[in-house]
Amino acid sequence: MQVNYEALIDEAKNKMLKWQEINEQNMWELYSNKDGYIVYTKKNPENGIAMNRTQTEIARTPDQILDLVGDVNKRPLYDEKIETAHVIEQIDANTRIVYVRIKPPIPFMNSRDLVMVQKVYKQNDGIYIVCSKSIIHQKTPPIHKVERAEMHLSGWIIIPQPNQMTKIIAIQCFDPRGDVPQSVTNQYAKLQSDMMKAAVKYIALNYK
Known about the structure:
Blueprint: H1 5-19, E1 29-34, E2 37-43, E3 50-58, H2 62-69, H3 75-78, E4 82-90, E5 95-102, E6 111-122, E7 128-134, E8 146-148, E9 150-160, E10 166-175, H4 182-206
Parallel strand pairs: 6-8
Antiparallel strand pairs: 1-2, 2-3, 3-10, 4-5, 5-6, 6-7, 7-9, 9-10
């Protein structure tokens, strides 16, 4: 049976746009506001898994930001937590199946990997969206001694601002799967804000 990746990722993108709003309905709780990065947390209303929302601004163009965060092959350039990341299958110009393997946060623990459909959306208002969601892919079965995690939702929202700045919002709902202590689960949750900081630092140094 042919999987409708388009419908899957469109649904994830619509949820991300709905949940990214800071309002009473979405019930985000402020976790930290430091050094220009604002981090919120909440429970996913569908499954109770922790979600993170990280926001900042940078004096670079949306195209420069998209060039980095929209290309999974470039992720190891800025994210030291990644063992490997690459495209498995290109569906169309904006949609692809990607593979990402994450280093374990503590010794004697298996790496986590993800197989996701990822799509780049370019809206008429100049906003770019990069959205990813876990899928089952027949050609990429689980690997021995690597735990197949689940990304319920992950993405970047790149919003041009009138002051030649660009606002970046990253949202993630990640289930590491397996037998993971709560303290380690919390470390995984922190990876998202660390990833944004690393991406912004890389963009500032390498995109002029």
